[in-house]
Structure formats: structure tokens, C-alpha cells
């Protein structure tokens, strides 16, 4: 059953969306009273199967998907043998600049004449108002989303937005037509000079009891904003994970927030997670909190990190390579360490809350490492989906083509891993880890969105910062569509997945592209009244 179809006729789409939202809201209410069985709304299953081995390439690492205690000292590896499957599943014979990836993992092309979401701010990393089970909340008849924003008219450029970022929020009526009705911009979520850093980076937002919300975010402090805006700078920033507890209000005019109290939660320890003293370019950001039905009463957080230790001190190990014994296409540890691949040390961190107020947290070992494969595993999410009567845990994260280690190649996009628990011997989806990427010719060298190779596919950087929603809907922001810079929300696409296989649903919307900024809610909270 296609639970998120968006036919081309807008009126029909609207009626379907309203009916589905009502049905999903009932389902969500039932799920909330049975936490042991809690799982996200399932995605539709793909029609494809796991890709077969490709001659001339190494076999992927064998992963059991076995679950471990969340506090166990076990970290799953996204290995070089796994990531080599990206190129194994890519077509080496396409014309230069075309898309070489399988259509199953390729995002449909975004039109070059895309609309601006807002004329005053650039918009990028985004997320929804949710509960601890990733239900997307309609609050008193309003849908609410959050995103990083920066002033389009302040004199700095689009690529300088990162050190000027604030968390903004948008809202629109739950019964709006997503193809026609724009999101209303509510402004900055926090009052000026009240958050812990001078720059606010990505996180997640949870509705608590009553009208309370917890905003988990990355508090980043840049010490050279003016210099960076002028094209210079380079002083390493500080970064900590923080939260803000505040109030949400809604009336017939819209949604507002107030009363935020900010608390610093975590800063990197230098042991499990690399800190600034060890690497000025360390990653420590993007908190995403959730409840695990296998461990009732506990709240966990995943986040992006890097393997602890001074940059350059790590050396690749056999388990990072992950080749099967005797594989004739395998690299040796010595070969890999001669390339400098050991500089890439991304991981996905895990923490557990020590109190019900979610103000005290303890680190647990990372649940995934990408040592010698990639240096960024940004904006991780845990997506729990029931498959054949058993909860399967999907870890989704995003990464760039230019953060791969030497000898590795992949597109900007979503990467996924599946296991039987939050800490598992995760199996990369499609045997490679690549779940959904922008159209890219992987036969050409990697480059970056601010200066792409004109010989490449013009949409290789069309979208980034993908956010996986219930039912497999995927939202992202537009970065660079054939030379036109973005700063607006992309059309939503649909990713069918089951049993570790993903497939773009091209029957969704129009040729696979749904409405721009389509983040449908599935749980209504707070009473609708006359705000519906």
C-alpha cells in the first residue's frame, strides 16, 4: 500500500493527505500506549533485491545485524569493503557527466527554476516537531518545522551561512495543500544572544507534556565571524551539545515560542569522541533523541562525532578494511595506510539520559565508525520499523563526496545501516551503505558544491541534509542545481525500504518528486478547536 501517494491532481491529493493524516493519527495514538511495540510508520517495501556481487570488486563485509546492550563496548564498522560496493554498483561506461548510479538510489532531478522558500533567509538543515517515537506532531491544528536560517541580505554569501546560522521555525495549517500553501516564517526560535553559542547548528525538537518543548541543538561558537564573512578567518570554533526547554503556543494566527532555558549537555571527551585540542576540524554536533522500545524508560541520543585521539595518530586496522579472507580484490592494511586514509575517522555517537529532565547525559561508545572510509556522518537518525513482526533499527546519516578517504568514492546523500537494536553489527543498506544520492558521475573525481567541476553532472549537489520521515518520505534542502544556488527546501521524495534494501519510489508525486517542503504530520496534539 502506498501510504504517501501524491497524485498530480491537487484537490485529490489534499483529500487523500487529510484522510491519511487522520488514520495515521489514530495509529499513532494507539502506538503511544504500547511502547514495547512502538515503531515508526513503515515505509513501503522496495520491488528490488539486494545487489549481487560485481566481478572485479571485493565482496562486502559480513554483518550479522546482531543486537548488543546499548552500553556494550561494541562499535559496528562501515568498512572499506562495504563502501567499495558503491563503485561496484555504479556504471563505469556512462557518458561523462551523466549519472552513473543505479536509479534505485538516485534522487530525481530537481527543476532549475525552483521557488524560494523565503525571500529574507536562506534555509537549510531542517527537522519536524516530533515526540520521542519520531511521530510528526500537528499542534492545535498547525504543522511546525525547524531549520537553520541565515540572512540573505546581510552582505555575506550563501557559502558563508554556516557561521551565521540561527534556528528558525515555520508553520502552516495541517489541512493546507502542500502543493500550493507556503510555510509561514515565524523568525528565530531563540531570542538574540540567549543561546549557549553565538551560532546555532542542527538538532531535533521534541514535544513534551502539555505545551513544553525540548530543543536539542549544537551550540557552536565562532571567534572570527567578521573575518570569515570577509573571506578570511580560520580560528577553530567550539562546539557543545545543548538543549533549550521552552513553551509552544498556538492560536488562530499561528505558532509562537517563549520561555527558553538553555542547558549545556555534552562536550567531547577526547577519548570516545575527538575534541578541538585533538583536531581543529573535529565534528561534534547534530543531537537526535529517541526512546528505544527495547529499553523502556530510557532516552538515548545519537550524534555526529570523530574517533577520539590526535588527528593523524589513528592508523587503519584490518577491521576497518573488512575484506573477506582470501579476497583477490582486497587492499592490504599497509596499502591503505600509505594513502593517508587514516585521516578520515567519522563515527556516530551514542549517549543516554541520566534523569527524566534530560539535563544530564552520559557518553556510551559509538554505535558506528567509518574509520578510513569517511570523515563525516552528519545528522544521524534512528528509525525503528517493524518488519515481519520484529523491530528493525535503521541508522540513517548523511555525508559528502569530498569527505571520503583516499580510494573511496560516493555521492552527497543519505547513507543507511540496519540492525536488530540501537547497538548492532549494522549491515549497510544495499551492501554499500548508499541509500539515496543526488545524480552523480562517480567515474569523475570528487569536488565541492561551491566550485563544482563543470564537466560533472549539474545536479550532483542539488540536495543535501536529508531528513527521513515516517513512511519513508525524505526531505532535504537545495544547494546547487546546475549552477543555481539554493537555500530553500527541496521537493520531498519517497524512499521504499525493507530488509536492508532501499529504492526510490518514482510513482510518488510527479516522476518521483513530491511538493516542495512536504513534511506531513501523523499525530495531532493539543486539541484542534477553531485552529483547524
From TrEMBL:
Question: Region (Disordered): which ranges?
Answer: 432-458
Q: Where is this site: Transition state stabilizer?
A: 286
Q: Does the keyword Cell division apply?
A: no
Q: Which GO terms describe its biological process?
A: carbohydrate utilization
Q: Which PROSITE patterns match?
A: TAT (PS51318)
Per the Swiss-Prot or TrEMBL record, the active site comprises 125, 378
Q: Where does substrate bind?
A: 124, 202, 285-286, 376-378
Provide the binding site for Ca(2+).
375
Source organism per UniProt: Paenarthrobacter aurescens (strain TC1)
The signal peptide stretch is 1-39
- Which of UniProt's keywords are assigned here? Calcium, Glycosyltransferase, Metal-binding, Signal, Transferase
The similarity comment for this entry is: Belongs to the glycosyl hydrolase 68 family.
SUPFAM superfamilies from the UniProt entry: Arabinanase/levansucrase/invertase (SSF75005)
Q: Which cofactor does it need?
A: Ca(2+)
Name recorded for this polypeptide = Levansucrase (Beta-D-fructofuranosyltransferase) (Sucrose 6-fructosyl transferase)
Amino acid at each position: 500500500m502506498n501510504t504517501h501517494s501524491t497524485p498530480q491532481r491537487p484537490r485529490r491529493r489534499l483529500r487523500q493527505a487529510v484522510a491519511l493524516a487522520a488514520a495515521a493519527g489514530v495509529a499513532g495514538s494507539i502506538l503511544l500506549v504500547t511502547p514495547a511495540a512502538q515503531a515508526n510508520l513503515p515505509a513501503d517495501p522496495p520491488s528490488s533485491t539486494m545487489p549481487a556481487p560485481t566481478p572485479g570488486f571485493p565482496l562486502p563485509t559480513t554483518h550479522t545485524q546482531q543486537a548488543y546492550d546499548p552500553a556494550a563496548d561494541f562499535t559496528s564498522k562501515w568498512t572499506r569493503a562495504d563502501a567499495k560496493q558503491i563503485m561496484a554498483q555504479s556504471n563505469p561506461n556512462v557518458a561523462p557527466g551523466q549519472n552513473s548510479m543505479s536509479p534505485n538510489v538516485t534522487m530525481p532531478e530537481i527543476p532549475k527554476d525552483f521557488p524560494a522558500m523565503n525571500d529574507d533567509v536562506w534555509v537549510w538543515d531542517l527537522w519536524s516537531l516530533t515526540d520521542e517515537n519520531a511521530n510528526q506532531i500537528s499542534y492545535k491544528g498547525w504543522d511546525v518545522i525547524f531549520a537553520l536560517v541565515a540572512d540573505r541580505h546581510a552582505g555575506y554569501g550563501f557559502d558563508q551561512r554556516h557561521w551565521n546560522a540561527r534556528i528558525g521555525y515555520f508553520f502552516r495549517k495541517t489541512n493546507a495543500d502542500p502543493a500550493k500553501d507556503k510555510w509561514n516564517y515565524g523568525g528565530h526560535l531563540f531570542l538574540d544572544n540567549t543561546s549557549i553559542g553565538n551560532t546555532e547548528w542542527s538538532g531535533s525538537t521534541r514535544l513534551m507534556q502539555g505545551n513544553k518543548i525540548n530543543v536539542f541543538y549544537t551550540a557552536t561558537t565562532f571567534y572570527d565571524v567578521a573575518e570569515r564573512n570577509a573571506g578570511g578567518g580560520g580560528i577553530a570554533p567550539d562546539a557543545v551539545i545543548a538543549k533549550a526547554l521552552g513553551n509552544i503556543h498556538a492560536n488562530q494566527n499561528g505558532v509562537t515560542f517563549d520561555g527558553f532555558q538553555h542547558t549545556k549537555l555534552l562536550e567531547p571527551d577526547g577519548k570516545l569522541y575527538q575534541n578541538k585540542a585533538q583536531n581543529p576540524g573535529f565534528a561534534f554536533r547534530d543531537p537526535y533523541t529517541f526512546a528505544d522500545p527495547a529499553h523502556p524508560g530510557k532516552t538515548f541520543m545519537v550524534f555526529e562525532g570523530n574517533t577520539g585521539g590526535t588527528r593523524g595518530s589513528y592508523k587503519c586496522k584490518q577491521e576497518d578494511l573488512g575484506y573477506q579472507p582470501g579476497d583477490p580484490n582486497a587492499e592490504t592494511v599497509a596499502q591503505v595506510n600509505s594513502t593517508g586514509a587514516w585521516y578520515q575517522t567519522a563515527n556516530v555517537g551514542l549517549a543516554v539520559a541520566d534523569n527524566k529532565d534530560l539535563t544530564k547525559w552520559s557518553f556510551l561508545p559509538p554505535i558506528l565508525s567509518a574509520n578510513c572510509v569517511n570523515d563525516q556522518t552528519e545528522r544521524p537518525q534512528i528509525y525503528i520499523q517493524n518488519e515481519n513482526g520484529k523491530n528493525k533499527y535503521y541508522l540513517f546519516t548523511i555525508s559528502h563526496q569530498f569527505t571520503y578517504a583516499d580510494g573511496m568514492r560516493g555521492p552527497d546523500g543519505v547513507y543507511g545501516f540496519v540492525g536488530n537494536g540501537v547497538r548492532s553489527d549494522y549491515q549497510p543498506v544495499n551492501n554499500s551503505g548508499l541509500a539515496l544520492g543526488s545524480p552523480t558521475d562517480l567515474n569523475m573525481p570528487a569536488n565541492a558544491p561551491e566550485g563544482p567541476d563543470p564537466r560533472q553532472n549539474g545536479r550532483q549537489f542539488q540536495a543535501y541534509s536529508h531528513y527521513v520521515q515516517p513512511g519513508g518520505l525524505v526531505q532535504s534542502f537545495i544547494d546547487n542545481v546546475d549552477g543555481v544556488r539554493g537555500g530553500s527546501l527541496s521537493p520531498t521524495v519517497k524512499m521504499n525500504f525493507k530488509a536492508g534494501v532501499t529504492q526510490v519510489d518514482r510513482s510518488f508525486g510527479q516522476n518521483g518528486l513530491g511538493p516542495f517542503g512536504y513534511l506531513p504530520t501523523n499525530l495531532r496534539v493539543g486539541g484542534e478547536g477553531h485552529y483547524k
